[in-house]
Amino acid sequence: MRTRVLGFAALLAAAVLTWSVRTDAHKPITSPFTFSDDVLPIVKERCAECHSPGGVAPMSLLTHADTVPWAESIRVELMAGHMPPWRVEGAPGRFRNLAPFTAREMNVLMTWASGGTPPGKPDSEPVAVSKPQWTLGSPDMAVPLRAVTIGGDVQTQTEEFRVPLTGRPLRAVDLLPGNASIVRRATMSIRAIADARAAGINPERLVALWLPGDHPVALDPGTGFQVPAGAELIVRVDYRKTWQFERQAVADQSTIGLYFADAAATEVQVLRATNPGTSESSAAFATTVGEDVRAVALYADPELSGADVRVVAVRPDGASEELIAFRPQAEWIRRYFFREPITLPRGTRIQVTASFDGDSLLPPAAPRSELQPGPRSLSLALNVVRAH
Amino acid sequence: MRRIQTLGLGAGALLVLILAGGVSAQRGGQVRQLPPVSMTCPMHPDVIESRPGNCPVCRMSLVPVRLDTSWICPIHTHTTSDKAGSCPICGRPLVEARVAVTYTCSAQPGIDRLDPGTCPDGSPTVARRTLRPHGNHNPQHGGQFFMAADNWHHVEGTYPRAGVFRLYVYDDYARPLSAANLRKVAARVVTEERYDAKTRTTTDIKSFPLRPSRDAAYLEARVTGAALPSEMTAKIKIKPESPEYRFDFTFAAVTREPPRATVAAARSTSTNRPSSAGANPAAALTASPDPAAQGALPAATPIPETMPEILAHLNARNVEIRNLIRDGNFAAVWVPAFQAKDLAVALEPHIGHLSPAAREAAEPALQRLVRFAWLLDAFGDLGNRQQVEDAYAAFARAASDVAKAFGGTP
Q1: Confidence (pTM)
Q2: Is any Cβ of chain A less than 8 angstroms from the Cβ of B43?
């Protein structure tokens, strides 16, 4: 059923969709797209992992009644490029774990949200959303974490868990939330006990960043994160309750999934470009590749949140290649895996520019005074493997 | 851009427009199709549903409404017609606006029905057209018309003669603010300013206070040193507690009030009540030339089928947007912007014909083009040149990337 079966629909369609060239300021748009026929299929495919009953997002978008009050927010978030939250400029196709909206999908959602939010067919029960599952298949080892209860008077909480490792290299680490509605993000790092005693050295090595709706990527066969003997996996889980659970105690018991690499796997290393500290609104820093490597992934440290970041590889022969241009969002820091590893010969300069200025299209999420209370270190990491 | 919003929509505040010589459902033996019934919220008029229920915003019961477009006088908004024409009062060309249609009786205007029928005295009901909020975004004095970011107020800037900038401030129905409210507006017009990119702030170099006219119909400032074409920025706080809004105006020439060709003939017919047959404004309206016949509403142009044609049209729309922005005609940008995004969507199925590398570039470029077209639409309403230009720069980059990916001329 069409919601906006309006008398002027035909006129509006003529004005907007069939190329009338009147230039009135008024834009009486009426969406030809309905929720049931056009919007819901996109939402189910793209958004339902979080925006569903029991999901981590504060609202479900699986029925017309649930979605309509958020139409204006949807419009604004899409226009600002905030959703999906890990947008990159340039070619997303070069990354394995990016699937942005198509032009048509973007247009359908915007037109519907701006044009009267017609429902189409009456709402049925929200489509069933499958429970979280291991998207990489069953892990080689599943380790339940201890149960956690978030008290009724607590809105956010961070818990740290220690998981013993066997010394086998890892291809991937995943997390299966026990209660998907409150597990907001997690970081998984290897802590080498021996290294921890070395003063001034970060004893932890990041192996996975987990976010709701962001499927993990396993390293290619033959490569892996090395695990020193006696090392353990440090899992930090950020819990956050949405308004639905205010003043309620909510429990979770998540499970960690370990995916092992061959014992002889080539080590995945970290190549880091760091700015020792700046208060400026923009910064440029670089590092040099010390041996022939292939870059398999990259990620920004949280301090780069809100900045427009551009990473360029300048090879010894002078040829330059943009590796990524993006604006990391504080709540959505994740790792970007290249679809094809990028060869970086020894001597390649990895140049990073970061600007916190924002622009009138995407103003900074917070005043710069809050973003940069003082000199801060900025860092971007590449995961690389030695070239054969 | 319309938004769901809370409107203080008291029934008494509605502009009740009784069409003089109104269009009944049946006139001259010709049945005029009734606008279909939709359901709307009494408090949130942007909520439009096709069946009964509750407002998703405030949960009030939805009420039936027949929505239609109508032609109204930009100045005398109580004058409406079902066709294009001129205002019987001032002679200005009528403009399109969104209205709700109900049916009343000439002798008993208190009657207000959803369906046409017969009055107690046996006469047929006449149509009553009620202007909807944001139903009229047309300039009323030949100037440039923008919507404030509060999504409630509207402004129109004019440059009626050398050295004079005039600002009209309207409510959500595009009605002038009352004199009392206009006097609360704090505003200035800035002809020179400095922008600090680091702090993203502007400092006025040359500004002039906007003061209410004697009849409080508008705000006006004497501007010195302005030569046409001229760019001026109105910075206004509608209420003391409001944020300051910025509106960028570009005047290529002195603003002219809309023509009043038939004012003399029509003035005697001025009325906001159903008129007698002897002074029937509808007659003047009926006699007005049809703008469609004059080419004011060109025939619809379909989206071309072939890729080169689509690219050529896309390039043309890009140029059109650029020219509109150059001329400061921000409010019109949405038309070519929407046409461009429809072209981008039409191009998407052609991606399969591209090489993998070109496809990799084309997909995100098309998506960006759609996104920035919508942003141009949103910013065009608000009249902030910096925002519009930034959105266009991003749009133009996307259009260029699309053209390159598809092998066209950027």
Answers
A1: 0.70
A2: no
